[in-house]
Amino acid sequence: MADKPQIDEPTKEWPAAVEPAPPADPAPPAAEPAPPAARGMSGFARLLIFTLVVFALMVAACLGLRAVNVLPSFDNPFSDKTTDRSQPVLLQSMRDLSRYVAADGSFQVIVDLQENKENIPDFLVNQRTLFVGAGTVESYVDFSNLATDALTVDEANKKVTIKLPPPAQGEAALDMQRSYVVAEERGLLNRIGDAFKSDPGQQQRVYQMAQQRITEAARASGLDQRARENTEKMLQSLFGRLGYTTVTVEFANP
User: Fold this and answer.
1) 157-164 mean pLDDT
2) Cα gap 236→120, rounded to integer Å
3) Which pLDDT belongs to residue 2?
4) Staple partner for 101: which of 61, 140, 158, 254, CB 3.0–4.6 Å?
5) Residues near 246 by Cβ (< 8 Å), separated by ≥ 6?
6) Can you give the pTM of this predicted structure?
7) 3-state DSSP call for residue 137?
């Protein structure tokens, strides 16, 4: 077989193929900065934490001992304190009473007192008080002014006749523990005026009106009739124990 140098040798017209170089490796990412090393706790912080822990343990121990009644109770150092600087009570007068309180009645009234000015809106000038008043009225028989012939005694028949004045009623006595102000309204000008001066007379007028209403209601409540019946029963029981069988009680006309 003849040699063929043209086949075994590379082609002279075309240069030999050059293999491409492999791609370069990408640059490694920049290394992240290392976190700063944890700083140790300062001595002051340790002392503060230790103090708080010790204080909490002491408080817990005191509460535990107080719960089992080992320690005495301690008063609140910030509790409210009331100081009474009232003056001693002054006795103004004294009188003898010769009356028999035969009955009393408890009453309650609602007073709605409003004071305003004509032709002026209520939001400017207005003073309204809603007050609930509770009071007591007594019905009594006065024995101090009995006539000489008020008592007639029949020893033979064991009979007694007593002539008395009609029952009377006292003024209503307000019970401040059961009386209270429900609401109070004031106009703008009234509020401004209250900043410079107060009006204690308004409250006094409300009390007087409540007292007057209760007194009037007691007169129409039948309290006097109850006083007549109770007085008659009391005298019949009193003279009955003395041996009198017939006790007659007569009341004068009011």
Assistant:
1) 91
2) 64
3) 46
4) 140
5) 157, 158, 159, 160
6) 0.57
7) strand
Helix (H) / strand (E) element for 188: namely: helix 188-194
Amino acid sitting at position 57: L
Residue 234 CA: distances (Å) to CA of 96, 122, 141, 142, 154? 21, 56, 12, 14, 20
| Residues 145, 165: Cα–Cα separation, whole Å | 8
**Residues belonging to the chain:** 254
Instruction: Determine which helix (DSSP H) or strand (DSSP E) holds 127, and give its type and residue range.
Output: strand 126-142
Tokens coding 68? 């089992």
Distance CA 210, CA 171 (A): 11
AA identity, residue 235: L
Dump pLDDT digits (tens) for 74-120.
555 666 778 888 888 888 888 777 889 999 999 999 988 777 666 55
Q: What share of the chain is helix, strand, coil (3-state, %, to 5)?
A: 30, 25, 45
**Residue pointed to by tokens 């002491």:** 58
* 24 vs 127, residue with greater confidence: 127
Sign of CA dihedral 30, 31, 32, 36: negative
* Residue pair 113/131 in contact by the 8 Å Cβ criterion: yes
